[in-house]
Specification:
Elements lengths: L1 H24 L5 H13 L3 H14 L1 H4 L5 H20 L6 H24 L6 H13 L3 H18 L6 H21 L16
């Protein structure tokens, strides 16, 4: 249990750090962070505050879907935003395209590792992933279609609100799925099965 908890919170902290890296790279972010940036720009709020508020609102949508949050779900709502704001407070603004590109690639890698860690810990899905699985459970619609509709909707909304869309958004969309698939087995916690006692051979 202790190992799983350490893995959960390390993953959530790294996810928040990866969000800050996307912001500082300023070459485009993933759809949800485009949305967070757009809302933050319109309301003059830190991205971390918007992430927490969005997580709470999405979590409320779980109620009609009859989804039950776990420790990982609640922690996701709180930790990601706090970690993103803390990382942004110490991360310098970059003016070099080479440095921005390197930071963008690093952000995608850190994001994939972080996702593998907090999902692999097995304490429940994040609010946004739970929304997808909840809609699937209630409607029977394919997960891929639901995910696409949600991601495209938040991306377009964030872009219209002034969120940063760019090459980073495309890189994330193409790379994050295969990278999470690669990373998840590294962090998936396995339950130990007691070996069956050996029986004496029949005489």
């Amino acid at each position: 249990m202790l190992r799983r908890l350490i893995q959960l919170y390390t993953g959530l902290l790294l996810y928040g750090v990866s969000t800050a890296m996307f912001v500082r790279a300023d070459l485009g972010a993933d759809p949800w962070n485009v949305f967070h940036l757009g809302v933050g720009r319109q309301l003059s709020l830190d991205i971390g505050t918007v992430m927490i508020a969005t997580g709470v609102l999405v979590l409320l949508l779980w109620i009609p879907l009859r989804q039950r949050p776990g420790l990982g779900t609640i922690s996701n709502v709180i930790v990601l935003g706090l970690a993103a704001d803390a990382a942004l407070s110490v991360m310098p603004v970059l003016n070099s395209l080479v440095a921005q590109s390197a930071l963008l690639i690093s952000a995608v890698i850190v994001n994939a590792l972080a996702t593998g860690m907090y999902i692999g810990a097995g304490f429940g899905a994040g609010p946004r992933d739970g929304l997808m699985t909840g809609i699937h459970a209630r409607t029977g619609w394919p997960v891929r279609r639901i995910r696409t509709v949600i991601e495209v909707s938040v991306l377009l909304t964030g872009w219209l609100l002034g969120g940063t869309v760019g090459i980073g958004t495309v890189v994330y969309a193409l790379a994050i799925g295969p990278m999470i698939q690669l990373c998840l087995p590294w962090f998936r916690q396995k339950t130990r099965v007691k070996p069956e006692p050996q029986r004496e051979p029949a005489v």
